[in-house]
Amino acid sequence: MTILHTDIFKIASHHRFQWEEAQQSHVILFPEGMVKLNGSAGEVLSLVDGKNSVDIIVTTLKQKFKDVKDLETDILSMIKFAHDKAWIEKIN
Predict the structure, then answer these.
(1) I need a surface site. Which of 14, 30, 65, 74 has the fewest CB within 10 A?
(2) Closest CA to 78 of 21, 17, 24, 22
């Protein structure tokens, strides 16, 4: 699947994205278990809310992390990875 800047995603049904104090990280919870996310994955998925387009997510994170090179490529890769794992789903 190609990720377009106009795409909008949400956390998939039967999944929940949250901060887990015990893990000191964001996690994806689902009936079969939990996935602990690294910091950058947590930053990206925190903006996946069913309202933000990929363009808004990229713009927001580029503003927040101005010194990171190739950030857009990393963001798009994370969104594709999360979609391929069925953690998120496209709504438009």
Answers:
(1) 14
(2) 17
